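Pilot study result, target chain (107 residues):
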Amino acid sequence: MKKSNKFSPEVRERAVRMVQEHRGEYPSPWAAVESIPPKIRCVPQTLLAWVKWVEVDTGERAGVTTSEAQRVKDLEREVKELRRANEILKLASAFFAQTELDRRLKS
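Predicted structure:
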């Protein structure tokens, strides 16, 4: 089941930018994050996740970037499809091999 995105990319970008711009005005990064959510009607944890994703994507924080995560997801999907295709080919090969053996035994 796919989660719906309640917030547009523009809202996310603006909220993250607001946190980054006003971080120095607060005693801690968390305080800066807590100040923005009431304005966009989200929970602070959601905004903190957005901030972390942007920091990873820009290289400010260690982690897997969005593009790398998407690439891994695409490759995993491809591997799954290839394994399914291999299983079908194995079953077909076994079926035809058995058919050939049966034909030889009847001759």
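One observation from the pilot: The chain has two domains: 1-63, 64-107. A full batch analysis is planned for the follow-on phase.
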